[in-house]
Specification:
- With 767 residues, the protein is α/β, with parallel strands linked by helices.
- It has 27 helices and 16 strands.
- Helix 3 packs antiparallel against helix 8, helix 7 runs antiparallel to helix 8 and helix 18 packs parallel to helix 20.
- The relative contact order is 0.05.
Length: 767
């Protein structure tokens, strides 16, 4: 049954029992016991359904409800209407109820901070003391002049116990964010307080009669506490909350002022009337409250000072140490290691592809991921270890080791801890990290230790996702080379040292060329033409990917316009667009400008987007996609099935083409599962009216299998390796057999055993 249904049944049951209590006096003890049992059952049911982190606070409250209900039933059974006694042994059950339920509320109000919990207890005691004084002097005592001392003492317990309960509720209200469960608990507590005060005042004057409207106060207490336990928000009351420091807020200062003024105001009132009956009691309470509030002010000032010091040395998002504190601790640890202390290990951790995750899922999810990473790092630390966040998605760990080689075990354990999927809002996010490690066996100075860990991190990144590496002296050469390459890439962007190559996209049925994919090459001054896999990731890291992407777009559109004018209609050109480039404001307008400037029809341009661009439900993304599609530009999903795949975007976005990644095509002839998978992708795309292009076709067998599946288009070395712009002109006329431009990674055409550069007739544009 749904939570709403359970709650409806609960309120229906409570309503029926309440009506029965007033309508059926002879069944009143049984029905009143039913109210208590149903209230406790509501709390227990809520615990079972919603699974709070800590069970025993709610268990104490359920126990208190049962104790109170037992007292009610016994009161009805042992009550003698003819007796003049105002109290009985049954009152002992009520006395036991107050500390049990108060303890439950106090536990729900725990914030998780020792200082805040201590301050909360002091506040609770102060408010309780003041409420008890006001209740006794203002309400109860004047009406008890004619009762015995024993009855007076017993009757005074009820309003004072309720004052304690109400103060615990106030503390809960101040320590937690507002929830429906808190509102119900507070309403039930206030109802009981009013009912008990009314009972104490009435019984001191006339015999108490059950079945009056005053009983509704106790019934409301049972009903609302049970409903609080049933409400889903009850689970949040036992969760640790990262609330802002409230020690010096206006609300808490107001509480301090009101509690400090309450007793003096009461004494002043008695002095004005000329009847100072409680001077000693009021003065004693005023002194205690003054001392407690003075302690609170001093404690709040100390906490504020400690909070400022903490913020100066810790990261505000994750609560981990910041770089300054980490550096201080590292300096101390390395000095101790140099003089005979334990080996010091440093791990530098970088979340793989965090920028893509942030772009696709939003910064709020990214912050939650960083918080979860920080939590996992904290859980694997030893007593004397330290985790820090340096900024962005970069973390560091200082670990004390028995042996230098232990850092490798710790690095592996760290990577495994981070790789466990993270559940957020009904989805699972797999986070991997690259980790670099170094120890004082490799370098003694703190700066050298961090530098060695950074070099190892670069090596781990180069090895792929989720890898760790330990610093070795031989890493220095490749890392220096990588830093040199970064500098050279910056210069290359400024100098425009890039050229395009084009790989034909053909119709599998005829071999006719229908399009050409533009592929960027870096004309390196000493290493020759470098393929994109050797510099695109680096360009992402240093922020040059947008400039390179703009060059590719402009050059490809200009070349396609020349082919269109020379041999109408000519093939379309396909351009890869990075997620960062696509999210640049005004990207669609930039595409329109390039098309207009070159005179190329929009349907002769296809933009290849990665799946990560499409997964984030962002207004700008949808607007850019719609604008491009409305303009006539064709859109393709590149490397389909290799990223954060979601079939929903095939229906939600104006996609025209799916490109099957070469990793699926390469094993078609050897893997039945791969054939089934590719056939499914092709069938799904065709059903949705999408075109399919298979990448990486190297053999006639691959081509034939794809054709049998219904795949209409493909590209790969079977047809041609990438061609220069001049070679494309010859290719389209069917007069060239020249190999593709040589590159360091691809070499000459002779290095492609499955390739053959053959003349390709120009086909018509696919519809």
């Amino acid at each position: 049954m749904s939570t709403r249904g359970v709650m409806a049944c609960y309120w229906a049951g409570m309503s029926g029992l309440t009506v029965g209590i007033f309508a059926l006096p002879s069944f009143r003890p049984l029905l009143w016991g039913g109210v208590g049992l149903l209230s406790a059952a509501g709390i227990v049911t809520g615990v079972m359904r919603h699974g709070p982190r800590r069970l025993w606070p709610w268990g104490l409250m359920a126990a208190g409800v049962l104790i109170s209900a037992t007292g009610d039933v016994l009161y009805f059974l042992v009550r003698d209407p003819s007796s003049t006694a105002l109290t009985s042994a049954v009152d002992l059950l009520y006395f036991a109820m107050f500390p049990v339920t108060t303890a439950g509320l106090l536990q729900l109000g725990r914030s998780g901070s020792a200082s805040r919990d201590r301050a909360g207890l002091v506040d609770t005691f102060t408010v309780t003391l003041v409420l008890a004084l006001l209740t006794w002097v203002g309400l109860a005592r004047p009406y008890m002049q004619s009762v015995s001392s024993l009855d007076e003492a017993v009757l005074a317990v009820f309003p004072m116990g309720d004052a304690l309960l109400l103060a615990a509720g106030v503390r809960l209200l101040m320590a937690r964010r507002r929830t429906a469960a808190i509102a119900l608990l507070m309403a039930g507590t206030a109802s009981r307080l009013l009912a008990d005060v009314l009972y104490a005042l009435t019984i001191a004057i006339d015999p108490w009669e059950t079945g009056t409207p005053a009983d509704l106060g106790w019934l409301a207490f049972y009903a609302m506490w049970g409903a609080a336990g049933l409400h889903p928000s009850m689970a949040r009351l036992t969760e640790p909350e990262a609330l802002p420091d409230r020690e010096l807020t206006a609300r808490r200062l107001l509480v301090l002022v009101l509690t400090s003024l309450a007793a003096p105001t009461l004494l002043l009132g008695e002095a004005v009337t000329g009847q100072v009956e409680h001077g000693v009691l009021i003065a004693l309470v005023a002194s205690i409250v003054f001392l407690l509030n003075l302690w609170r002010l001093v404690d709040a000032a100390n906490n504020h000072r400690r909070s400022l010091a903490h913020r100066g040395h810790h990261d505000t998002l994750t609560g981990l140490a910041n770089r300054a504190l980490f550096s201080d601790r590292l300096a101390v640890a390395t000095e101790q290691s140099r003089t005979g202390g334990p080996t010091v290990g440093v791990l530098v951790i970088d979340i793989d592809e965090f920028r893509i995750l942030n772009d696709t899922m939003g910064q709020s999810i990214g912050d939650e991921v960083l918080g979860e990473v920080a939590s996992r790092l904290s859980r694997i630390l030893g007593r004397h270890d330290l985790a820090a966040r340096f900024g962005g998605d970069e973390f560091a760990i200082l670990v004390l080791l028995a042996r230098p080689d232990d850092v490798e075990t710790f690095a592996a354990r760290t990577g495994a801890a981070l790789a466990v999927p993270i559940a957020f809002a009904g989805r699972e996010i797999v986070v991997t990290a690259s980790i670099g490690a170094a120890t004082t066996a490799d370098a003694e100075a703190p700066a050298d230790l961090l530098g060695g860990a950074d070099l190892a991190l670069q090596a781990a990144r180069a090895a792929g996702r989720g890898q760790w590496r330990r610093y070795r002296a031989e890493l220095l050469g490749p890392m220096v080379e990588r830093m040199r390459l970064r500098t050279e890439l910056d210069r290359a962007v400024a100098a425009g040292s890039f050229v395009l190559a084009y790989q034909p996209i053909v119709a599998l049925s005829s071999g006719a060329t229908v399009g050409l994919e533009a592929l960027v090459r870096w004309r390196h001054p000493t290493r020759g033409l470098l393929p994109p896999e050797e510099f695109i990731q680096l360009a992402e890291e240093i922020g040059q990917i947008e400039a390179i992407g703009d060059f590719v777009l402009q050059s490809a559109v200009t070349a396609a316009a020349q082919w269109h004018r020379a041999r109408p209609p000519g093939p379309y050109v396909s351009v890869n667009v990075s997620a960062r480039q696509f999210r640049t404001p005004g990207f669609a307008e930039r595409v329109d400008h390039e098309l207009d400037a070159a005179g190329l029809p929009p349907d002769h341009l296809m933009l290849e987007l990665t799946e990560s661009v499409l997964l984030r439900e962002e207004d700008q993304v949808w607007a850019e996609l719609a604008a491009l599609s409305d303009a006539g530009v064709r859109l393709a999903i590149d490397d389909f099935g290799t990223g954060f795949s979601s079939l929903s975007y095939l229906l939600q976005t104006p996609i025209d083409v799916i490109k099957v990644d070469k990793s699926f095509v390469g094993s078609l002839t050897t893997s039945e599962r791969q054939r089934t998978l590719v056939a499914g992708i092709v069938g799904l795309a065709l059903t949705l009216g999408l075109e399919v292009i298979a990448e990486g076709i190297e053999t006639a067998a691959d081509r034939d299998l794809l054709a049998e599946m219904g795949c209409p288009y493909g590209q790969g070395y079977l047809y041609s390796v990438p061609l220069t712009g001049a070679e494309v002109d010859l290719w389209l006329t069917g007069t060239t057999r020249r190999p593709a431009i040589p590159t360091q990674s691809s070499g000459s055409a002779a290095e492609y055993p499955h390739s053959r550069v053959t003349p390709g007739p120009t086909g018509t544009l696919p519809t």
